[in-house]
Design a protein that fits this description.
This protein is about 50% helix and about 10% strand. The chain has helices at about 5-20, 30-35, 50-55, 105-110, 135-140, 150-155, 155-170, 175-185, 195-205, 210-215, 220-225, 225-230, 245-255, 260-270, 275, 290-305, 310-320, 330-340, 345-355, 365-385, 395-400, 410-425, 430-435, and strands at about 25, 45, 60-65, 70-75, 75-85, 85, 100, 120, 125-130, 140, 170-175, 280, 285. The radius of gyration is 28 Å and the shape is globular. Strand 8 and strand 9 form a beta hairpin. The protein is of the alpha+beta class and about 450 residues long.
Length: about 450
């Protein structure tokens, strides 16, 4: 098997080999190349020790010398070059207490997480596959290198990574690997929130976000995201639904674009349903007020997992309004856009469409037709440059002061009152008219 290596990667490999050392591209870049994908980055493993690597290249960065990693800089592009190593005992479920450098490529590959990530390549030796990675790629299987329990004990996040890789690649998790995850899932609680968040986002924006189901089946979500487990246990006996709450969430994520905020919105949008569940005399389930509760849950989970404020703000607003009623009139759509924000309106339409797609099919055509009509009204509003926010008003605070108003709270109150007027009657949005209303 021949893999196309970028020129800079070839240069690094050739330089190390010319210096008398072994050197290979390794890990994800080899996996992706075998799959016919463009690697995001190229990692290199070598028998050269860190100081020997540094001596061969003009510019390097000491990325992690204690773990054998040096970043080689070539024209402002960095490539991580790591010495073959054997990891010692793991004390914290992530970092080995010590590492030992070795001259044996096999020892370096056997410490890696999954067989598909434990392959190496250079143009002289070809593909080095000592643990069946190629066969697992062909079979579509995520399997640990060696003993799965040991791999997960070394780094508990690998359990989440197994699910994430399965979602990204559309692969199944090998039975023995899945069994080890079930047994060791509580260990993931010792992993930092930031690392868990990074894996969750990669899973959520993958081609198969519904593979989060595997994390639930293996007991991972019970440790890091118990709100989802409660959703998986909540049935929805209602004409508009054919799945339990959790399955509806999974199907809705698969029905929306692979955008971080949109996928997270669908992940959180119905998590409040178990808290507000009621059943009427006819046995029909109801979840009144669930959007507000779901919004609070989304905020709590995102705080717990250390999400950035911009993502939290966007997602919580969409979750809070995902089920909002928008009258199919220009006035109703203008008011909805003013409340939610024009920037979020297109996203809200996508959220509502995905929500419908994950329901039972009851009145689906009518729902989609109405949503399309509302979107058409919104496009007409934008085309006519109608006022939707205070920024769009024909007057501002300085205009009111120039007209004789005193600076202070009254200015803001007046501007909001004028916005209300314009939302009702967009033709009133002229400076001359609005100044007559103060």
């Amino acid at each position: 098997m021949r893999i196309h290596l970028p020129k800079k990667v070839k240069l690094i490999l050739n330089t190390l080999q010319a210096g008398g050392y072994e050197a290979y591209a390794v890990g994800g870049c080899v996996r992706d190349s075998v799959l016919g994908r463009e690697p995001d980055d190229w990692d290199i493993t070598t028998s050269a020790k860190p100081q020997e690597i540094k001596a061969l290249f003009g510019r390097t960065i000491d990325t992690g010398l204690q773990h054998g990693t040096v970043t080689v800089m070539l024209q402002r592009e960095g490539f991580e070059v790591t010495t073959y190593r054997i990891d010692g005992v793991y004390d914290d479920g992530r970092h080995p207490r010590e590492v030992t450098f070795t001259a044996d490529l096999r020892e370096d590959l056997r410490r890696r997480d999954f067989t598909i990530n434990a392959m190496a390549y250079n143009e002289e030796a070809g593909l080095v596959d000592l643990f069946g990675g190629l066969a697992d790629l062909e079979a579509g299987v995520i399997r640990c290198v060696g003993d799965a329990a040991q791999r997960f004990t070394e780094d508990a996040l690998r359990m989440m990574r197994a699910v994430r890789f399965s979602a990204q690649l559309g692969f199944a998790i090998a039975q023995e690997t899945k069994a080890a995850i079930r047994e060791l899932a509580p260990g993931i609680r010792q992993v930092s929130a930031e690392r868990i968040q990074a894996e969750l986002v990669k899973l959520v924006i993958s081609p198969h976000p519904d593979y989060l189901r595997a994390a639930w089946e293996c007991g991972i979500t019970a440790q890091i995201f118990p709100e989802f487990d409660r959703a998986m246990e909540m049935p929805q006996n209602h004409p508009h639904h054919s799945y339990c709450v959790g399955e509806h969430i999974l199907h809705s994520m698969a029905a929306i674009e692979a955008d971080k905020a949109l996928r997270l919105t669908m992940l959180f949008h119905d998590l409040g349903k178990p808290a507000v569940h009621t059943t009427d005399a006819e046995g029909i389930d109801h979840f009144k007020g669930h959007a507000a509760v779901s919004r609070d849950i989304a905020e709590n989970v995102m705080n717990r997992l250390r999400f950035d404020n911009a993502t939290k703000d966007r997602v919580t607003k969409l979750v809070r309004n995902h089920d909002c009623y928008i009258p199919a009139t220009p006035r109703g759509v203008r008011r909805a856009a003013a409340k939610i924000g024009p920037a979020l309106m297109p996203l809200l339409f996508s959220v509502k469409r995905a929500d419908i797609a994950a329901q039972s099919g009851y009145q689906e055509a009518e729902k989609l037709e109405m949503l399309a009509h509302i979107e058409e009204i919104y496009r007409d509003i934008l085309a006519q440059n109608q006022c939707l926010t205070l920024r769009d008003l024909a007057v501002g605070g300085q205009d009111l002061i120039a007209a004789g108003m005193q600076p202070g709270k009254a200015i803001g109150d007046t501007l909001n009152r004028l916005l209300e007027l314009v939302l009702e009657n967009p033709e009133y949005n002229t400076k001359e008219y609005l100044l007559t209303q103060i």
